[in-house]
Each structure stands twice: as C-alpha cells, then as structure tokens.
Design a protein that fits this description.
Pfam families: zf-HC2 (PF13490). With 203 residues, the protein is of the alpha+beta class. The protein is built from six helices and eight strands; from the N terminus they run ααααβββββαββαβ. Strand 2 and strand 3 form a beta hairpin.
Length: 203
C-alpha cells in the first residue's frame, strides 16, 4: 500500500488509515522514507495487482468495522433510552392524603375529587362497593392518586399549579369515600384496607 499512498492514488479513508498505521509502526515509516527517496512502481506487474487487492480488502474490512460500531452504538443508545423511560414512567408512587390539595366536591349530583398539584400521574378508584360497617351496609368508594418520577420532574419544570377534577360516581350511589392505597385485585380484602384508609367524605 505504501507506493500507492506515496503516489497519492488512494481514497481519503485509506490515506487516513495508512497515516494512523505509520504513527505506530517504525518499520513502515522507514520503508516509506526509502520508497519516497527512490520509488519505482512496477506498473502492470503481479506485485501491483496484489497490492491493489490487499488495499480493496482492507478498505472493505474498515467499512465493515465502521458499520458494526455504528449498529452497536445505535443499539446501546436505544437500550439507554428505554431504561431511562422505564425508570421515569413505570413506578407508581402513592400520594399521601392532604386536605389542602385533595377535596371531594359535589357537582350536579355527581361526586368529583379535585386535586391541586402538577405532579399527578394517575388515579385508582373502586366505586360503589357494598361494605358492612357498624352493623349496616354502605356503598363505599375507595380512591387514591399517584405520581411518577416523570410527573415529579414535569412539576419541577412547570411554573403554574394544575387543577385536576376526577370523577368518582353519582351521589346516590355512594355513601362514603375513603382515601388509601387499596388492593383492587383482591376486593374481598377491602374491609382490611378500610382501617388503613382515611374517610374523606360521607353523606
């Protein structure tokens, strides 16, 4: 490759590759000096054909290596983005009850929860569930709201506080509303959840 490089008949990529190699190879640098002093290209010879084939092979290998590095870089970037998204969005963090920002309101014979805050990510409710309490049956609604690291970050970046109105159900279908993190997948245990929840509205 050195004769072709010294004669400046190689591409820019190959030129850079040869120059990188010359920086670390003493013997090739000496050979380049000798060839530069008295260079004779064996035009049409088998030696030149072999050099050209070698050069083409190395260029192909170099391109393949670049393609592999690019593909790996894109894959790693995708994994990092996916992991970051999962860490920010997936966790559902319970927001403790605070009467100053969580209030039950009756509007047109319907019950709503008003939440004042910018970090809300979602809500979970179990409506009109018949429950025996103090010897009488009541239609009880369990409710709570949650945040995520992403909604917390979004709240930090926002200047204004948001006002959320969340529908609970019709007034005639609900006797009491409890706030607490209940097990929605096991409704038969809601009586136990009652002790850990806070009564925030009743008829």
């Amino acid at each position: 490759m050195l004769p072709l490089y010294l004669d400046d008949v190689v591409s820019e990529d190959t030129k850079n590759m040869v120059e990188e190699h010359l920086k670390s190879c003493e013997s090739c640098r000496k050979e380049a000096v000798l060839l530069n002093e008295d260079m004779i290209l064996p035009l049409g010879s088998g030696a030149q054909d072999a050099e050209i084939k070698t050069l083409k092979y190395l260029k192909k290998q170099f391109r393949n290596k670049k393609a592999v590095v690019s593909a790996v870089s894109v894959f790693l970037a995708f994994i990092i983005m996916l992991g970051t998204y999962a860490l920010l969005v997936t966790p559902k963090l319970f927001i403790p009850y605070d009467s100053t920002c969580i209030k039950v309101e009756k509007i047109d014979e319907k019950l709503y929860v008003r939440y004042i805050g910018s970090n809300l990510d979602g809500s979970v409710a179990r409506n009109s569930f018949p429950l025996e309490k103090d010897g009488e049956k009541k239609d009880v609604t369990f409710f709570y709201i949650y945040k995520s690291p992403w909604s917390e970050l979004r709240a930090l970046l926002q200047k204004d506080t948001e006002d959320h109105l969340i529908f609970l159900g019709n007034v005639d279908e609900i006797d009491e509303v409890y706030y607490g993190k209940f097990r929605i997948e096991r409704p038969e245990e809601l009586s136990a959840d009652l002790e850990e929840s806070e009564l925030i509205w009743k008829k």
